[in-house]
Write a structure and sequence with these properties.
The structure is a homodimer. Chain A is an alpha+beta fold. Chain A has 2 domains: about 1-85, Winged helix-like DNA-binding domain superfamily/Winged helix DNA-binding domain (Arc Repressor Mutant, subunit A), CATH 1.10.10.10; about 90-140, Dna Ligase, domain 1, CATH 3.30.1490.190. Helix content of chain A is about 45%, strand content about 25%. Chain A is built from 6 helices and 6 strands, in the order H-H-E-H-H-E-E-E-E-H-E-H. In chain A, the strands form 2 sheets. Chain A has a 3-stranded antiparallel beta sheet with strand order 1-3-2. A 3-stranded mixed beta sheet of chain A has the order 5-4-6. In chain A, strand 4 and strand 5 form a beta hairpin. The interface of A and B includes residues 74, 96, 107, 121 and 131 of A. Strand 6 of chain A pairs antiparallel with strand 6 of chain B, so a sheet runs across the interface. Bound molecules: manganese (II) ion (MN) (2 copies) and zinc ion (2 copies). The site of one zinc ion (ZN) has 7 residues of chain A, from helix 6. Chain A binds a DNA duplex through helix 4.
DNA sequence: GTGATATTGATAATTATTATCAGTACTGGT
DNA sequence: ACCAGTACTGATAATAATTATCAATATCAC
């Protein structure tokens, strides 16, 4: 597993250890494609490793983020989620306000338009977050 | 003051009262053009009205929101802010990650592109939130 | 005025995140 | 193998923002 390898390398380069808990948390995160909150990942981890604490899960997610293996996603519902960042290009999200289902969206045109706005005001762009909220097809039918 | 009037009307239509605390909080919010958090507004209110509690400020902001006089803004820094919505058309924000300064941005093209994305996936759009983060001109110079 | 209802502000509860810290595990040098 | 110095861990506490609770007060319709 390549990303696992990458994490080990990152830890090493920082003088940090590839401890068992870290590797186990990382493995489980990297194996799910879900956008998980810390709590959700903690629950997943607990199924296999009952001894691992919440703090370690939280800390490992931060390390994975610094290693460029995951990034935060904020749907504005009060809890942060994490998604894969390795070999997962930037994209934004279209989220259903009824059931939480979402799709990942991307448009080069849209990104370029944003760049122009940033330029116009003399800012130096770092990141951006676009969330579009609406009702998904399924939930429209349910109504 | 027109918006103040509108608030009174809204309260009336809901069978709610235009109590003194509500009106005072509303007036102070409507008079500042800042994007305030509940805590910041609470502090502003306190300067004039030492008897008003945090809960009332919070609740009044929610009412103002329902009345269409303000809307939430989330810069992703852990605290929600509120901005005027009455006679303030939709727009997004370009935020400085160093000093917090921001500019309000809008592009019809960008909005239309978003609509197309939503259509493409069969969603029914409700809202969207776009925050672009970068370093403002001033902070670039400081470096 | 009176009784029903809405409102208020202090306080507590909630929620997610982050910090603290004592005990444990690991490391590199000997 | 031993040891001294660090890093790491998990339980717990602290933080911070928001939301709920509730007894006291204010307001309204009659
Ligand atoms: Mn995603
Ligand atoms: Mn604004
Ligand atoms: Zn849905
Ligand atoms: Zn700045």
């Amino acid at each position: 597993m390549e990303s696992q390898e990458r994490f080990a390398q990152f830890l090493n380069s920082r003088g940090l250890r590839s401890s068992a808990p870290r590797s186990q948390v990382a493995r489980i995160f990297l194996r799910t494609e879900r956008h998980v909150s810390t709590g959700e990942l903690y629950d997943l981890v607990r199924k296999k490793h009952k001894e691992i604490g919440y703090a370690t899960v939280s800390r490992t997610l931060k390390l994975l983020e610094e290693a460029g293996l995951c990034r935060q996603v904020d749907f504005g519902d009060g809890t942060l989620r994490y998604e894969h960042a390795y070999k997962h290009a930037h994209h934004d999200h279209l989220v259903c306000t009824k059931c939480g289902a979402f799709v990942e969206i991307y448009s080069g045109k849209l990104e370029k338009l944003q760049d122009k706005m940033v330029e116009k005001y003399g800012y130096m762009q770092e990141t951006h977050k676009l969330n579009i909220f609406g009702v998904c097809p399924k939930c429209q039918k349910k109504k």
